[in-house]
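Hi V.,

You were right to ask for the full record rather than a summary. Here it is.
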Amino acid sequence: NTQTPIRLDRVAPTVSGTVTPNPVLKNLPATATASATDALSGVASASCVTPGTSVVGSVTVACTATDRAGNVGTGVAAYTVIAATTGIDNLIAKVRSMRLGTLETPLVAKLQSAQANLRAGKASAAISDLTDFINQVNAKTGKGITPAQATSLIADANALITSIQGGI
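Predicted structure:
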């Protein structure tokens, strides 16, 4: 006659989360992914609430996990929502980091114009400047801007346009 010991699991899983992208531009989508561990019964499910991006600042989103014994653990995923103005600053820094020589000055000037228009509450003018920036990048692709650099710059500019259109 053999006896099998019974192991009772009363410990909730350990939960954390990550948000991508981080930082995220205001009004653009982000996703949160939960990560959980449970040493005894194992993790049955883990998820996070959809991150909100309508308010600028440091934010957290709740994540939960349930183990196979039914214990529920909670955690958070921290992220930062940035305004389009900060996004333009980041794009200016990216252009400068690419060391594009004589191409840098007109590209940065377009972004600075977009920044000034945005700060003045002129969203349409800022979008126009960003569209001009994209056109300049397209015109110089293969002529001082690599295709990979162009793809990155255009993606960032389009994200800024989407963010501005959603309301700064």
